[in-house]
Design goal:
The complex is a heterodimer of chains A (141) and B (165). With 141 residues, chain A is α+β, with helices and mostly antiparallel strands. Chain A contains four helices and five strands. A five-stranded antiparallel β-sheet of chain B has the order 1-3-4-5-2, with helices on one face. The chains are: A alpha+beta (141), B alpha+beta (165).
Chain lengths: 141, 165
């Protein structure tokens, strides 16, 4: 939660500090299933996941997105508001995986008094494989 | 489970495109916001600390960004009647054995606080047959969920893109 982030100082191409989460565990995924209400067996039942054609249970895409949203929201902190976030789930995240969230300033604009920063987002696992591609709009105060 | 394998043309029914569903109510609880933030391991005090949050522009605890996904109801398999997102997939004849969450978008209009009573309306915003690499067709669906609070303020619009593998 940086107090330093300011619209005026940000430049197109600037990277925002990465956030690494994990390693994911089966217990963690189960905890997210309970908190979110998503008990799809693909996330919690090993046998079912295998019958779905997967090597093991996978984390909820929404948990992975939770990391990406945390990354952006806590970067901007109280300096602004997350206005929009969009992700594409590129690959599965499994128990044992680390997830590193990255972001880059794609554009910035002042329109109708609104200072908006447009971010390109990405999350990758410990092998450097992309698991999420995304974008977010952040409005600064 | 050969019927669950990709490579077959989709049976998705394009005629339900545009269908709107009855409003769904959701009560936002402080303890649920806390459990949700903890399940992401998100340390932001805005989600748990009353005193801290009260001193910010939000004037109290708010929900984390992806919390809004809960508004469409718990995704409990086998539940009767099926949860909304499951029901919509069934209505569109998406093959449950192939279904994956392809994309997710949230657009935020106002903060979500404990005690809020959220009313959400879901609509099949888009429904298409799209080609796979092998030339077979799969179903791709966008469900748009508009959520308002007890004051009638729009708080968030969520777009769920489901695809058949």
């Amino acid at each position: 939660m940086s107090g330093q982030v300011s619209f005026d100082k940000l430049k197109v191409g600037d990277a925002i500090p990465p956030l690494t989460k994990g390693p994911l565990t089966r217990e963690w995924i189960k905890k997210y299933a309970d908190a979110s209400g998503d008990h799809n067996p693909i996330h919690i039942d090993e046998k079912f996941a295998v019958s779905f054609g997967l090597p093991s249970v996978i984390a909820h895409g929404m948990l992975d997105m939770g990391f990406v949203a945390q990354h952006v929201a806590n970067w901007v902190g109280l300096n602004g508001d997350l206005k929009r976030i969009k992700v594409r789930f590129v690959a599965n995240v499994r128990p044992g995986d680390m997830v590193t969230c990255k972001g880059k300033v794609k554009d910035k604009k002042v329109e109708g008094g609104k200072k908006t920063v447009f971010l390109d987002l990405s999350a990758e696992n410990q092998k450097g494989e992309q698991v999420i591609a995304g974008e977010a709009d952040v409005v600064f105060a | 489970m050969s019927t669950n394998l990709p490579g077959r043309d989709t049976k998705v029914d394009l005629s339900v495109k545009g269908k709107e569903y009855p409003p769904l109510k959701f009560k936002v609880e402080k303890s649920h916001i806390a459990a949700f933030a903890q399940a992401i391991d998100d340390p932001n005090k805005l989600y748990v600390d009353d005193k801290y949050a009260a001193k910010t522009k939000y004037k109290g605890i708010i929900a984390p960004p992806t919390y809004a996904y809960c508004f469409a109801g718990p995704l409990e398999p086998g539940k009767q009647p099926p949860p909304l997102l499951v029901q919509i997939g069934l209505d569109a004849k998406m093959n449950p054995g192939l279904l994956v969450h392809g994309e997710q978008e949230f657009e935020y209009f106002a903060p979500i606080h404990p005690g809020d009573e959220i009313t959400s309306v879901a609509r099949i915003a888009n429904l298409e047959h799209k080609p796979r690499k092998d030339g077979s067709k799969r179903g791709v669906m966008t469900i748009e969920i508009t959520s308002k609070n007890q004051k009638g303020e729009k708080v968030v619009v969520s777009r769920v893109v489901s695809i058949e593998r």
